[in-house]
Amino acid sequence: VDRISSERRSANMAAIRGRDTGPELAVRRILRSLGVGYRLHARGLPGRPDIVMSGRRRVILVHGCFWHRHGGCSQAAVPKSRPAFWQEKFAQTVKRDTLNLRRLHEAGWKVLIIWECEISDAKVVKQRITSFLEWARDEKASRARAPAFRIAGEAGPSRARRGSARP
Ligand SMILES: [Zn+2]
Predict the structure, then answer these.
(1) Per-residue pLDDT tens for 82-92?
(2) DSSP classification of residue 43
(3) Cα 157 to ligand 1 centroid, rounded to whole Å
(4) How much distance in Å is there from the Cα of 164 to the middle of ligand 1?
(5) How far is the CA of 139 from the centre of ligand 1 (A)?
(6) Which band of pLDDT confidence, cut at 50, 70 and 90, is reported for residue 136?
């Protein structure tokens, strides 16, 4: 038997379905409390990102720690049963995530990743989201300022490249 609790398993299944997971609902609540409009799972974008703010050209990805392999996270332990099977699954997910991030980035989208385990501290998540969105506003005034958050591997704020969204 895999050493995953039934609670964890149902969360994993929700993650597989790809929508309306507890963590995502929590992030949506925070956005509503900030008065920020968003779309869900926009089909036209790479990987159908969880939460899309088109006008701000921002997306928020709410990643389950288990499937998306949150580095160093206790929730990302590899199941003891059939480790090779899981490693293969994880490798596919991480590869897909990396590709989607790159495509979003190339199309001029800024991405904030919020990990499932971070949701427990709503105050911190709210602060991160605020910073992420405020940068969008400041960006219009001055592109010189660095973003508070950016995706891994991104060298810095990218210029131009806007409006070149891929299918
Ligand atoms: Zn985590």
Answers:
(1) 999 999 999 99
(2) T
(3) 26
(4) 32
(5) 30
(6) low
